[in-house]
Specification:
The chain is mainly alpha-helical and 373 residues long. It has helices at 5-22, 40-45, 91-106, 108-126, 135-146, 151-163, 173-195, 201-222, 224-229, 237-242, 247-256, 261-281, 293-312, 326-351, 369-372. The longest helix is centred in the C-terminal third of the chain and has 26 residues, at 326-351.
Length: 373
């Protein structure tokens, strides 16, 4: 039956204070001068659906980046903010959603200034000159120092982010690849020292970079409609032209909900191009440290599954967002969890409790992939 929050609330309150006291906030209960105890019953009285203040249900499939986007489909002048949109619930994410909304409204000028400030703060922090009061930048710089990350990769990333402020189309795939070097490939290269490898790192690097590209190409295909609403098309113009597709035709299909065989043919070719990137990236997974492989394999399978979902909808990405079914996501994630747990237990037994991916030195191991598989 329904919970009796009049009885539960004081007990929860007392248990929480005891736990805080145990964790170091000694005497916190006696230090409270005023308090307001809010429960789901109060949320219900305020009109929150089913007694929750979290807007849409706070499940895995609707949390963080999976929550509704902050742009309204088919509407050019509406931007959303709050707990019901990305990046999620909680005070910091909600504040960030407001910042994202403001950036979309103020236009590229303000966003460019913000990006310049971030770039300056990061460069100063990487050089050991302080974080300028930005803890995320400090954490990033600390990671870069711990794993000896190439600072040039950060510069390449920021260059691509600046490109997004102005560039709205790409003439050909090589031009798009140049953009994706900074927006996607460098992410794989930056993660490689953190994940650790069982081969020389330079041997795994091309595959790691290609996996970043494969993931981003998948995003481009899945989000054609949403990107079009932002005035941006990532599909190369020469690929579209080969199928007699142009931006106006994409806009027409998006606005009317209709499908055009020319658009479908172009999207199918882009899917094939994306699958080639997955095939080039896959040999790099066995090159990773054993405890890292299951996580990356899980991402590889689920992101690749988005391509299957796109095809299953008849390439209707201009009208709906393709997604891997929840049951499939849960099964793949559970398998990955079992595998990573087993790998960590093995690592503890073999290395006295030191996980291969927990040390920057892990990337220097020289065992062959087949020996560690």
């Amino acid at each position: 039956g329904p919970a009796d929050w009049r009885a539960y609330a004081p007990r929860y309150r007392d248990a929480l204070l005891r736990e805080l006291d145990r964790r170091g906030l000694a005497g916190i209960a006696s230090a409270i001068d005023e308090e307001c105890l809010v429960t789901p019953a109060d949320w219900t009285e305020l009109g929150h659906s089913a007694g929750t203040p979290f807007s849409v249900a706070h499940t895995f499939g609707q949390t963080g980046p999976f929550r509704p986007r902050n742009l309204v489909r088919g509407t050019a002048n509406a931007v959303l903010a709050g707990c019901g949109t990305t990046p999620g619930v909680g005070v910091p994410p909600v504040l960030l959603s407001g910042k994202l909304a403001a950036a979309r409204i103020t236009g590229p000028g303000e966003r460019a200034d913000a990006l310049d400030r971030l770039s300056t703060a990061l460069a100063r922090c990487l050089a050991g000159g302080g974080d300028g009061g930005q803890p995320v930048v400090a954490a990033l710089a600390d990671t870069a120092r711990r794993y000896a990350l190439d600072h040039g990769l950060f510069a390449d990333f920021l260059t691509s982010m600046r490109s997004d402020l102005e560039v709205t189309r790409y003439a050909g795939y090589e031009e798009l690849r140049a953009y994706m070097h900074g927006s996607a490939a460098v992410i794989g290269l930056q993660m490689l020292p953190v994940l650790g490898t069982v081969t020389p790192r330079e041997e795994a690097a091309p595959h790691a970079a290609e996996l970043g590209v494969a993931f981003q190409l998948t995003n481009f295909l899945r989000d054609v409609g949403e990107d079009l609403d932002r005035g941006r098309v990532y599909l190369p113009e020469d690929l579209l032209a080969a199928h007699r597709v142009h931006r106006d035709l994409l806009r027409h299909c998006r606005d009317t909900g209709r499908t055009d065989r020319r658009v479908v043919a172009a999207l199918r070719e882009f899917e094939a191009l994306t699958r080639r990137s997955y095939r080039r990236a896959e040999p790099g997974i066995p090159m990773l440290a054993p405890v890292s492989r299951p996580c990356i394999r899980t991402a590889f399978v689920l992101y690749g599954g988005i391509l299957d979902a796109v095809a299953a909808t008849g390439y209707a990405v201009l009208h709906r967002r393709a997604a891997v079914r929840r049951r499939r996501r849960a099964l793949v994630a559970a398998d990955g969890l079992v595998r990573v747990t087993a790998a960590r237990m093995t690592a503890r037994c073999l290395r006295g409790g030191t996980s291969p991916a927990a040390s920057p030195a892990a990337g220097s191991a020289r065992a062959r992939p087949e020996e560690a598989a």
